Amino acid sequence: MAAVLDAFNNPIPQPSPAAAAARAAVIRQSQATKFGVLALDMRNPDHREHLTQTFVGAPGQPLHFPATQQVLDALLQQHVANGGPQPTTLFERANTVSATWMPAVKIAYCDILSDGKTIVAGGILTLVDKAQISWMNLQIVDNNSTPPQVIATVSPPAQFDRYTTQIMAQGPIINPNLPINVTCTLTVMYTPVNGGETVTLADTCVFNGISPVNVVTVTDPNNNKHPSRNYIKIGLNRTSDQQPDCDYWYTFPTDGPPKPVIGVQVVGNATLSAGSTLAGAPNFNGYLVLYKRGSMVGGGACFVFPTGDLTPYIKPGETFFSWNIGPDMFTTAPWEQNDTIDLDFFCQFQLVGGGTGRVRVTSIPQVYGGDAPKNIGPINPMVFVWGCLAAQTQIRTPDGFKAIADIRVGDQVMRDAAGALLTVTDHWTGVERKPMLRIAEAGGRDILVTDQHPMSTPAGIRLACDLLVGDAIYVEEGQSVILSIEPVSYDGYVHNLDLGTDDERAGIDADATTMLAQGFVVGDNRMQGSHSLRAREAELERDTLVALPQAWRLDFENSRRRALGLPLLEALVA
Prior knowledge:
It contains five helices and 34 strands. It is mainly beta and 574 residues long. Strand 22 and strand 23 form a beta hairpin. Helix 2 runs antiparallel to helix 3. The model has no long low-confidence stretch (mean pLDDT 83).
């Protein structure tokens, strides 16, 4: 049998018999759980063998990951002392929790590409609190070979101080002429940043046939009354004149849970391949999960509804079916300001003559080295917009100062002291419950902003939360110096503006959309979105090898080298 090669044209290492047996035991036990997610117990020899082989290496080999081995050794002692791991993530809990963000580990998809020869799988680790360190491995095994052969294995570099990490792997089927019999295992280990007990999990997927779906169509809720974009725009506390630029809008009162004015809907249909027919009682079942990403305050996942009967939401025919979920199902979803939310809808059903079909609608990013599987329908992520200046903030206009709450679409505001003007193309209103920042400058003025609001400084655009006392900042007359920054309790309306003109918006530089607020040069809503994204990216990039504890440096370097297909080191070179 020819060896299966990795992305670097190296043969994929095959596990020892002991490691393969341990992996098989983990898959069996994981598949017996409600969602296929199993908390791994270091007291269990199979679990211990699987974790060690996955993240440290085979016994008797040079120790390339000594700090990771120390974590596993300590975890064994903890499991012996406290009776094993506690269920802490969304999918491993026996009693499902809705409307609450929880840590989650999940294989988002495992399917065959349209070439009929390539299996692709993707997974996600998302945490409410940052991980001090997290490890992931995604492995695909073709069980038609003897012994079963690993056709893909991916281990990204160890991640430090991350909320969310995604992973993807794909590999060739050993014999495309045989019925597909593939297992996919996502193994995760992470230590919470607060120093809590290390969490070890495995999620598994058994893939034993091509899903008999020819095409999946998802109705994008983009209402086509706004510029084209690659996300679903959801406004919180929108007014009726702001609806055209939102796909959905919500009232979000301060005296209770979110109440939708127009709720999110998941609408679409699937057509079966020729020769496939739905059974008389198709038994539609599955789940719908929201995953948070692009947030400055953590990740996590939550159920819109857990595994159960989807029949009330699905209209079947003989060779097709459609679904319509919402809006009532989303009324308790825990939306937060500036969130980007991925939606993942999974449905499986029975066919005439036996067999199971699957459909997935997901906005979790998918990367394929070939055409996408036919039973996966892509959907755009949902982005929530919110305002971020206090309601009485005074904005400079050609006619003098005006409270931002009183500014309307079509009004003009001054971009700078030289008299340059921009037109208000949208006005956003929201409710802020978190403390805001009161920034005072040497000229005697102060401004109340949310911590993510962009401020103009000689060093470039900075988010308010990144400013320090003594920093230089731009005001109407030129430069000034920050005298104080203090958090202020706030429970009221906040506002923001989109600036430019309708015909300029596609090309205007986001860093040029400024206004004079309380005499400070601040950015608008689009600039806020742009720089919040940059801040998130910078946060992920700042954790370098130099900043790591000494004990972890060899492990991190070897995890990076392994991901690049380079030889591993036994010690760091001075």
